[in-house]
Amino acid sequence: MVESVLRSQNTNARIKLVNATKGKYVRAEPIYSLYEQNKIYHIGQFPILENQMITFDPDKGKSPDRVDALVWGFTELLLGSKFTFSI
Q1: Of 82, 65, 80, nearest in space to 2 by CA
Q2: 30: which residues sit within 8 A by CB, 6+ positions away?
Q3: Cα separation of 86 and 30, whole Å?
Q4: Residue spans of the chain under pLDDT 50
Q5: Which of 75, 68, 63 is nearest to 31 (CA)?
Q6: Nearest to 40 by CA among 76, 78, 1
Q7: If DSSP codes are grouped into helix, strand and coil, which group holds residue 58?
Q8: For residue range 63-87, what is the model confidence (pLDDT) as tens digits?
């Protein structure tokens, strides 16, 4: 479904489909580490994303969609296939 929505908006966009085989917390650790090292920062305000980032608890409730998208995107852009868990 996500792929079809993205393609309907821009047929030239590069889309990489991924499947999670590791828990969200495990996937987020390398990106969290980059935040701790001040290698990632936000320009502008993203209140919904930032709220999800500070309230995420892997042991509780709903999975934060914006945080997950951020982790997948930064993993691909900054860490490359070295940290890609599955395609």
Answers
A1: 65
A2: 75, 79, 83
A3: 16
A4: 83-87
A5: 75
A6: 78
A7: coil
A8: 788 988 898 889 888 877 554 444 3
